[in-house]
C-alpha cells in the first residue's frame, strides 16, 4: 500500500491499481488564508470510495469528493448530528451539500468493516473536541494497515482500536492542539480541541505502531483558532522518546507502507 498526503488532513491510499481518499478537500477559507501555494494537491487517480471522519468543512468538501469518486460515487461518513441549527453550525453546510448531491452516501457505525477490494476499511471510535460526530478510520490493503485520526482529541479507545483493528503499521495523526473560540460554544474552552503533539505521539504508542505521519497543522488564526507552537518538532521529539519514527510528508509526497519499514518517494 502507498500513502500520499493531499494537504491538511487529506490523504490518498493506493494498492493494486486502486485508490481511496480520506478527508480530501480543495479549499476552506481559514486554511487557504494561511497555507502557502501548493498546500493542497489533487489525487493521482479516481478513487473507489471517499472516507470522511466528520463533517467540518476542513474535512468534508463535497465538490472535491465528487471530482475524485464521480457524481454518484460512494462516501462513508459518521452519523448525522442530531441537533438544532444553532447547535450544529459546523456541520450543517456539508450535511446539506451531501443531501443535495447524487453521491452514494453511507452512514457508518463504530467497528463496522466495509470491503472495497483491495481495501478493507473499518470505522473506529473518535471524540471530536467540539462535540460533533466523528469516526476515525483503519484502512487495510496488501497486508498493511493505516490509521487516520481525523481531528480527534485524546480518549480511551486506543487500546481497543489496536486490539480489534490492528496491527497498525502507520498512523496519520493530527498534532496542532488547536484551541477554538467560536460563538456557538460559549464559554470557550482553553483546552485543545484536537491532539497536541505530545498526545498524538502517545496515541501512536498506544496503537502500537512504529511509523507516524503528522497532519492537521500549519494554521494559526487567533483568537478563533490558536495552534500550538513548533508542533512538528515537538511531535518528532515525543515520538522519538517513545521509540517511534516520524515521517513528515509534504503535500504531494508519498511513501510505500510496509511491515517494519516505510520508503519515501515523490508521487508521479
Automatic annotation (TrEMBL):
Database matches in InterPro entries: Metallo-B-lactamas, RibonucZ/Hydroxyglut_hydro, UPF0173_UPF0282_UlaG_hydrolase
Q: What's in the keyword line of the UniProt record?
A: Hydrolase
Pfam families assigned to the protein according to its UniProt record, in alphabetical order: Lactamase_B_2 (PF12706)
Residues in a coiled coil are none
Molecular-function annotations in GO: hydrolase activity
Domain Metallo-beta-lactamase span(s) in chain numbering: 32-217
Entry annotated with the keyword Ribosomal protein: no
Q: What is this protein called?
A: Metal-dependent hydrolase
Native species: Mycolicibacterium aurum
Upper lineage is: Bacteria, Bacillati, Actinomycetota, Actinomycetes, Mycobacteriales
Amino acid at each position: 500500500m502507498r500513502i500520499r498526503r493531499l494537504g491538511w488532513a487529506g490523504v490518498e491510499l493506493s494498492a493494486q491499481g486502486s485508490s481511496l481518499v480520506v478527508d480530501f478537500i480543495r479549499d476552506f477559507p481559514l486554511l487557504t488564508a494561511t497555507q502557502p501555494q501548493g498546500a493542497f494537491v489533487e489525487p493521482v487517480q479516481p478513487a473507489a470510495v471517499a472516507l470522511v471522519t466528520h463533517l467540518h468543512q476542513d474535512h468534508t468538501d463535497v465538490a472535491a469528493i465528487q471530482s475524485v469518486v464521480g457524481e454518484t460515487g460512494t462516501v462513508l461518513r459518521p452519523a448525522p448530528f442530531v441537533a438544532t441549527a444553532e447547535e450544529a453550525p459546523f456541520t450543517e453546510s456539508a450535511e446539506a451539500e451531501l443531501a443535495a448531491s447524487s453521491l452514494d452516501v453511507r452512514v457508518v457505525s463504530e467497528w463496522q468493516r466495509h470491503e472495497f477490494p483491495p481495501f478493507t476499511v473499518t470505522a473506529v471510535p473518535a471524540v471530536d473536541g467540539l462535540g460533533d460526530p466523528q469516526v476515525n478510520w483503519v484502512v487495510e490493503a496488501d497486508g498493511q494497515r493505516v490509521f487516520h485520526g481525523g481531528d480527534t482529541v485524546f480518549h480511551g479507545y486506543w487500546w481497543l482500536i489496536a486490539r480489534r483493528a490492528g496491527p497498525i503499521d502507520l498512523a496519520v495523526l493530527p498534532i496542532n492542539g488547536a484551541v477554538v473560540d467560536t460563538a456557538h460554544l460559549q464559554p470557550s474552552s482553553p483546552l485543545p480541541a484536537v491532539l497536541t503533539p505530545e498526545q498524538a505521539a502517545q496515541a501512536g504508542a498506544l496503537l502500537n505502531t512504529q511509523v507516524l505521519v503528522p497532519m492537521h497543522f500549519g494554521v494559526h488564526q487567533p483568537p478563533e483558532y490558536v495552534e500550538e507552537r513548533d508542533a512538528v518538532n515537538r511531535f518528532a521529539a515525543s515520538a522519538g522518546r517513545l521509540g517511534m519514527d516520524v515521517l513528515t510528508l509534504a503535500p504531494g509526497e508519498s511513501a510505500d507502507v510496509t511491515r517494519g519499514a516505510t520508503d519515501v518517494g515523490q508521487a508521479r
